[in-house]
Amino acid sequence: MHAASAQIGVAVAARLPQFTLTGNAGTTANQISQLFITPGTAFWTLAGNVAQTVFDAGTLLHKERAAVAAFDQAAAMYRGTVITAFQNVADTLHALQSDAETVKAAYAAERAAFKSLEIVAASCSSAPSAI
Description:
This protein is an alpha+beta fold. The protein has a domain at 2-17 and 52-126. It has helices at 2-15, 59-126; strands spanning 18-27, 42-51. It has a two-stranded antiparallel ribbon. The longest helix has 68 residues, at 59-126. The chain is elongated and about 135 Å long.
């Protein structure tokens, strides 16, 4: 999404005028001893440039719209990924809850079987022997 967002900025910037400023400064002399000491040897230049596309038949506008659409697509994919991740977490939590209920039921069945065993063992030990 960050890259798609940056592409929108690039597309908007392409539609704006481009400004360039250049500056140079220095000194000049015929002899090295006069280079920095002699007045009047300094020079400077300052230049500016402005460039703007005059006619592009809407190309830059459509590039900007394409960048916005790519951003919207990236955002939708991100939302889809997040929703899928939440769905996976919810499914895992539901499976854990189901497993916990299964273990609880198995424990209850084991306790009931143990009670039945105790009852059978008690009735066998108190019954008179027929031998």
